[in-house]
Model the fold of this input.
Amino acid sequence: MKKYECEPCGYIYDPAVGDPDNGVAAGTAFEDLPDDWTCPLCGASKDEFKLVD
Done:
């Protein structure tokens, strides 16, 4: 699965891990995150994330 990086703070969203502290189960693709999901570190919106090569 593809990883995405928060451009403002550098947080990496890894679908293999998810975001369990915010109710996102492991295995959840970035594209399947709720539209109102935000970076758990800085609060940036999904549109501020970029695909990590």
User: Anything to note?
Assistant: DSSP finds no helices and three strands in the chain. Residues 6 and 47 are 9 Å apart (CA to CA). The chain has a mean pLDDT of 97. Strands lie at 4-6, 12-13, 49-51.
